[in-house]
Amino acid sequence: MAFELPKLPYADNDLQPVISSQTIGFHYGKHHKAYVDNLNKLLEGNEMMNWSLEKIMTETAGKADKAGIFNNAAQVWNHTFYWNCLSRNGGGKPNGTLLTKIETSFQGFDNFKKEFSQAAMTQFGSGWAWLVESQGQLKIVKTPNAECPLTQGHKPLLTIDVWEHAYYLDYQNRRLDYVNTLIDKLMNWEFAAANLIVS
Ligand code: MN
Question: Which of 61, 84, 107 is the last residue of a domain?
Answer without folding.
Answer: 84
